[in-house]
Each structure stands twice: as C-alpha cells, then as structure tokens.
Amino acid sequence: MKNKKYLIRYALFLMILSSCSSKQGNIALDNKFSVSGSIQDPAKNGVKDIKIYYQAGKFVVSDALGKWKIGPIEGTITIEPLDPGYTFSPTSIVASTNMDGIVFNAQPKTNLVAEKHPLAENVFSWFKQMQRTNGLLESTENGNFVSLYDNALAALVFIEKNERTKAEAIFDFFNSRINSELLSGNGGFYQFRDANGTPTGIRGMGDNAWMLIALNNHAVKYNSTTYISLRQ
After folding, report:
1. Which fold has domain 118-231?
2. Which pLDDT tens digit goes with each residue over 1-19?
C-alpha cells in the first residue's frame, strides 16, 4: 500500500512536470512572431532579389513577385531593405509582433539623377565653341592666351561628357609636339602659348601633371593606347 502511494505521487509529479514543460513551450512559442511584406517599384510591380536585413548578417531575399517573410523570430528587430541599385521608402521598420503587408517602395537610383539644367547645357555649348581648329581652347574668349592647365581641364570635361573627339583634338595638338617640346631640353610642355600654339613661358611640372591625368582618364574610359607616347 505504501509503495502504491509513492507510485501515485510520482505519477502526479510527472504529470505536473509535463504540464509545466508544455506551458513553457507554449509561452516560448507565443513570444515568437512573423513579419512579411513586399518590395514594389514606382509602378507597383514586385522587385525580386532584394535583401531585407533584420539582424546583423541575417537577411531574407524577395522572391519573383517581390514578396518576403521573416520568422518565426523573437525580440525586437529592425527590418531594412538594402540594394545598391535602389533607395527605399520607408528606409526601415521596427517590429516586435506579427506584421503583414509591409510595403517598401523601391526607387531605382538611375531615376534620381538630376535633370540637365538648361543653363549648364548652354554653358557647355559655349565651352565647346571655344575650341579652335587646332584643338586648343583659349583661357579667355578672343584673348589670344592658351594655358596648358586649362586645356587639361577642358579635356577632362570633354571626357566626362563623352565628347571623345573634342578631347582628342586637344591631345592631338600636343601629340604632334612630342619631339619639339615634350622631349626637348628639360622636357615637358610649355605652360602658356598663344592661340596659334606658339609657346611662351616656362614648362611647369604641375601643368604637365594635369595633362597626364587627363590622358590617363582617356586611356581608362576608352581603353585606348592612342596617346601612349604622351603618357610615358
């Protein structure tokens, strides 16, 4: 009888322990939540392959329809989509409970480029007209004064604007004077000259360095070896 009494107590103890364990499991499960939503472009189409971060180094990726889901998870998380090709609105959302239907609006960065300003375009048009038939640009309009530094900067502007032939017109002028200037005497191109190209002044190292910068930019952008003799 005594043993039976202990067996009953032991059985009750196991039942209580099992009940507590079950409740703790339910509590732990209740603390977890899920969050879901989508990534949409300006036309409300889903954007795929966007990483949505929610913890350090942890993320999910939007599917072919732009949809994503995080969880079950617990605690408080900050949800943040990141992609080099887009900006997002909102930039992030904090969640600590179930949330559904979250929409991150994705704006392609290519559409964020500022529109061409009419005044800037007019200035560039004038800038292009300043180039003489020999390829040089005068430092001041009708000033009969040409600077090596100014023409190096002009070449960089033309390269940036993808006006390749205009940049190369400047380089062609100096390319034809490798022996007469660049390699003669102390070396280097003269700092100044008149509009026809007759040199005056000194051969400034800094001015020649800027021309070399322009030449290297041209070589990289157009994968060109045309002016390799000027760059050596």
Report:
1. Glycosyltransferase (1.50.10)
2. 444 444 455 544 555 555 5
| CATH class held by domain 33-111 | mainly beta
3-state SS string for the chain: CHHHHHHHHHHHHHHHHHHHHHHHHHHHHHCCEEEEEEEECCCCCECCCCEEEEECCEEEECCCCCEEEEEEECCCEEEEEECCCEEEECCCEEECCCEEEEEEEEEEHHHHCCCCCHHHHHHHHHHHHCECCCCCECCCCCCCCEEHHHHHHHHHHHHHCCCHHHHHHHHHHHHCCHHHHHCCCCCCCCCEECCCCCEECCCCHHHHHHHHHHHHHHHHHHCCCCCHHHHC
Task: Output the pTM of the full model.
Answer: 0.52
Domain ranges of the chain: 33-111, 118-231
Of 9-23, 37-51, 209-223, which range is least confident? 9-23
